[in-house]
Amino acid sequence: MEKGGIFLIRVSYGDLGSLYFSTIKEFQLDEVYEYIKKNERIKEALVLWTCNRFEIYFYPGDRETVDFLEDYINDKSLKHTVVHGMDAIKHLFLVSAGLDSMVIGENEILAQVREAWEVSRKNGMSGPNLNEVLKKSLEIGRKVRRENGNGRRARSVASEALSRIEILPGQKVLVIGAGDLGTQISSFLSRNGIRFSICNRSPEKAREISKAFGASIEDFDRKKWKNYDVIITATKSDEVLLKRNDIAGSKIKVVLDLGVPPNVSGDLPKGVKIVNMESLSESIIPNNDKASDYAIKSLKTVNTEFERFSKKLMNTEKEELLKKIFDYSNNVIEEEMKFFERKPNERADSETIRKGLESTRNKLLGFVINGIKNAKDIRSSETVTNMEMILNENFSRYETKKVKKVT
Fold first, then answer.
1. In the chain, N or C terminus with fewer CB closer than 10 Å?
2. Are 244 and 252 in contact (CB under 8 A)?
3. Taking the chain, what is the end-to-end CA distance rounded to the nearest angstrom?
C-alpha cells in the first residue's frame, strides 16, 4: 500500500446537526458508485452511509480525484470534510471502535462497516489497499468491545432513543419500519416486556419481526395508526408518513421519529411529544462523556493498534522501495552484460565483469539504502521523493512498472 494513498470525503452529524439527509436524501448507493466509476483514476472505493454519517473512502487520493468527488458532494451537502493519508485510516479505526458516533461505543457500526465493504465488493470497487485497512478496522472494533466490555451494554441509537420517551402500562405501541433500525427497536421493546405492533410496506418483513418478537401486525394504513398511543417510525422513506392532520384528533401522545429523512412533520398538535433525530442528537451528544472510562480505554487501544499498523505499512514500503532499486540496478547490470557478451574476446571474463558491476552497484546505492532503512518516514523527505522521480524516469527505459509518486 502507498502510505497516504487512501483519502476520505465525509459528511456527518457534526457538519449538519443531526444529518437529517433532508438536503442529501437523493444519495443512493448505486448512484454514488456509478458516479465514482466514471473516474478511471479511482481504483478502489467504499461508501459508508448510516443515519448519522456519509463517507466515501477512495484510493488513490490526489487533487484530481478529490475535485471529482467534491463536485458530487457539493450539490447535495452544505459542508463536508476531506481527510487524507494516515488520518483517513485512523478515522475509520475510530469509527469502527464506536468513538466517532452520536452514541459513544454503539455497536451497529461494525455491522454497517461490514455491509459497506460487501457493497463495495459487489460494485467491483474493493481492492488490496482498502481491504487491508477495513480488515484491520473491524479487528480493532471487536478488540475494543471485547476488552472494554461495551458490547455487554448493547449501546445503540435505538436504545438511547427509546430511553428518551416514556411508555406507560397499557399504552398501545406501533413500530413503523422493519429494516435494521426497526428490528433493533423491536428487539429492545420485546426484551423489556413491552407489547407492540409492527407495520411495514412489505408485509413479509413485518411477519418476520412478528414471529421473532411476538408482535402483532398492523396494516400500512394511516387511519388505523390513529388508534395507537405511541408511534415509532424507522424508515428511509422520502415521503412524510405522518402530518399534523393525521395526528390531530387521534390517540397519539408520543412520536419517536428515527426516520432518515424525517418520517413525521415537526409541527404536531399541542400535547403530542415528538423526539426525532435532531432533538436526539442535541440530548445525546452533550451526555456523551468523552472522558468516560470506556472512551479513554478504547482510544488508547485504537492509538496503540494504529501505531502498529503504521509501522507495518512503513516497513512494507521500505521493502518495496528497496526491491524497486535493486530491480533497477539488476536491469542495468543485465544491459551491461549483454554489451560485453556481444564481444567474443571478452566473454570468458563475463563472470568477473558481473561481480565488478555488482560491487559497483552496492557501493553506489549504499548511501541510498541506508538512508531508506534509517528514515522514520520515507514520504516526508524531499530527497527521497526526488530520488523516486529519477528512479521512475530511469526505470521507464526497461518498460517496468513505475513507482507511483504520492501527491
1. C
2. no
3. 14
